[in-house]
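hey so i finaly got around to running the thing on ADP-ribosylation factor-like protein 6 from Magallana gigas. pasting the sequence first so u can double check i didnt mess up the copy paste, my clipboard has been acting weird all day
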Amino acid sequence: KRIPILFYANKMDMRDALSAVKVAHLLNLDKISTKPWHICASNALTGEGLSEGVEWITGQLKEIVNAK
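ok and heres what it spat out for the 3d tokens, dont ask me to read them lol
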């Protein structure tokens, strides 16, 4: 199944935090070719980036439901 995968690159408030692009590279996310995926830079303390991820996963799930 093409179940979407959402990753949060949390702790973006930390001085030495890696960018979401760097995290995706280190996790080899580009190797995931059978499922849609998305990575969001986030900060759980402030909520920054959380809504972007929720919007993306919601859109992906709506596409799955509408395709049936």
